[in-house]
Every structure is written in C-alpha cells, then in structure tokens.
Amino acid sequence: MPTGGVNAPVPVAPDATPAVDPRLIVRQEGVKGYLGEFRGRMSSGELGSLPVVLALIVIWAVFGSLNSTFLSAQNLSDLSQQIVGTGMIAIGVVFVLLLGEIDLSVGSVSGLCAAVFAVLDVSDGVNQWVALITAIAGGAIVGAIHGVFFAKVGAPAFVVTLAGNLGWNGLMLQILGATGTVNLSGKDIVSRLYSTIYGQQIAAYGTAVVGVALFLLASLVDARRRRTAGVPFRPVADIVLRTVLLAITAFLVAYTLNQYKGLPLALLVFLIFIVVLDFVLRRTSYGRQVFALGGNIEGARRAGINVAWIRISVFTICSTMAAIGGLFLAAQIQSASQTSGGGNLLMNAIAAAVIGGTSLFGGRGKTWSALLGALVIGSIQSGMNIQGLSNAIQFMITGAVLLAAVVVDSLARRTRRAAGRA
C-alpha cells in the first residue's frame, strides 16, 4: 500500500522530457518560428488588429488614388483632430463591450455634458474650470446611475441605457432653454484644447521620441519582472523589433503633421487617454477583473470578483468618456445645441469600437480599438466628402464596414471555439 499520502510528489520517469514553453521554441527558430506562430494564430482565429489595419490601408489607397488631396498633410492633420470627439466616446464603449454589454446613451450623455459646460461657462459666467469639472462629473454620475440600475436592480443594460438615451436628451433640451443653442466663446478651455496646434517641429518629434522611449522602458521593465518571477518573457530582440516598428510609425506621423501646422493638442490628449486606460486594462488587477467578467461572469463571481462594483465602474467610465468626447465635439463646432449628441454619433462611436477590433461578445478588446475604428470611420467620411458623395452613400458604406467587422468577429470567435481558445 502507498505511504506517501495525497501530497506525495508524483514520480517522474527517468527519461521524461521536461515541458517547454512553445513561445521559447518559436523564438529559437527565428523568422521561421514567428511565421509559423503567425499562421497558427490566424488559423485559430487570433486575428488581433490585422483586419482593421488592412482595411485602413485599403481605404487610404483607394481614396488616395481617386484624389491626391486625401493623403495630403492638411487633410490627414484635420482628420486627426476630427476623430478625437468620437474616439473619446468609443474608448468608453470599449469598456462596456468588454463586459459583453452595450450603452445606447453615450450620444445623449455627450450632448448633455456639452450643454452643461456651455450654459455654465457662457450663460451663467461660472469659472471655466468649474464648468469643465461639473460637466465631466455629471457624465460620471449618469454612468453610475446606469450601472446601479443594471448591477443592483437587475434591469438589462440595453433597456437602462435606451431609457437614458431619451431621458438625458430631454434634460439637455431643458438645460439649453428656449434658444436651443449656446455658442462657445472660442477662448474657453475646451475650445483651446481642441484648436491648439504646436507649430514647432520639436513638439511632434519630441512626442514621438518620448512615446517610443516609454514603450521601450515599459517593455524592458516588464521583461525583467517576468524573468524574475520565472515566467516566459520577451527577449531583447523582440522588444527591439517592436520598438523599431513603433518608432517608424511614430516618426512618420510626426513628419506628416509637421508638413502642415504641427502637433494638434487634441490628438495628444486623445493618445494620452488611450495609453493610460490601456495600462489600466492590461496592467492592473482592475483591468484583469473586467476581462474576466466579460469572458465568464459565473467564473468571475466564483473567483471572488465583486461583479456589481465592476459593472457600475465600467458604466461610470463609459459615460465619463462620453462627457469628454462631447466637450471636444462641442469645441469642434463651437457650440452646444439641440442636435448635440444626435445624428449618427451613437452609431459611429459603437462602430468605431467594434470595427477597431473589440468583440461584441465580451472579453476581447483594447483601447487602441477606439483609435483604429475612429480612423476607419473618419477616413471613409473624409474621403467621401472630398469626392462629393452624399451622406446616404456614407451611411451605407459605414454600415457595410460595421457588418463586415461583426462577421469577422463572429467567424473568429467560432474558429477560436473550435481550436479550444474561446
């Protein structure tokens, strides 16, 4: 009879081969290994950002061939500013989609918060910083209300935010009053954030250098931390290659911006939000809980995650980002009106998140999806405006691109499930 008990070590055959992390084999095989890994990821549905990057290349190639104005430094610089408002809202939508939920109120919330700022700053003469903080805080409170009804009361997020879409739009109309439109002064903090462009070339190039340096430093620190913990880590060659690719992209963007006026402050603020919230999602326990909840809610609950708190916080983040996006959109047109937050803004924000690569089924996505998706939608609109095409054509093509993104996401999810990775 065995005497070792349940905790006795399992005997290992003398000729047994220790397990080897497949990622280490890939790196040892060099280029051949990476190509094999890439094919394996594609065949198993791990597409990442590849589809949207390819779509963006095709869109730019098509519109660039039709009219050289599209790829001009001026148009690309204008595009980088125009996508900021919708992109900010899309960042918040990414958080909600990671839970496998949807927020249909982001358009109305953005218009409401823009109206709050405009009325306080222009009509009531409140200090502009107080008006700004009040508008953003208002967005956070709205999101918390949505989250409480969803997480505590148990009402479906779809219904809660649909009701919010109507209710907050009505409140916006009430705040704007009989005139229905409040024009910004152009000298307020929001307008300056949107319109300021740093004309010195060192601004764009310096930002590129700082961004690349921070990426390199973060990668090296992460590799060292993982090495110390005894888990697989990226070798220096991998980190250097990724840094070089990022540097090429960053300096091309900086060069293009400097060919026109320089670095738009709005774009810089947008990128800062993306990087900071990407860190929150990928490098903090809170971010891991968001992904866990979106991947398997029952498993997350059994693991001790406070499901209600995560849900409330995610909807709060979403509405806060909607408020910030609404302020940038108001600065873009220099007013808050009865049409603020309306039109196709809601659909564009959701489409940007989905087209950028965030899954509608939850558990997969990143804040960079907002940038990529907003670029796709903004590029389509810009290209069609240059070609003089109607809004009807723009809506149909944007809808087709959104449908294609959802189909790709669904097929990839089915492939991952078949490969045992879903």
Automatic annotation (TrEMBL):
This is Xylose transport system permease protein XylH. PANTHER family: ABC TRANSPORTER PERMEASE PROTEIN YPHD-RELATED-RELATED, XYLOSE TRANSPORT SYSTEM PERMEASE PROTEIN XYLH. The chain crosses the membrane at residues 47-67, 79-99, 129-150, 157-177, 197-218, 239-257, 263-281, 308-333, 345-361, 368-386, 392-412. It is found in: Cell membrane. It holds the Pfam family BPD_transp_2. Keywords: Cell inner membrane, Cell membrane, Membrane, Sugar transport, Transmembrane, Transmembrane helix, Transport. CDD domains: TM_PBP1_transp_AraH_like. It is a multi-pass membrane protein. Part of the binding-protein-dependent transport system for D-xylose. Probably responsible for the translocation of the substrate across the membrane. It comes from Kitasatospora cathayae. InterPro entries: ABC_transp_permease.
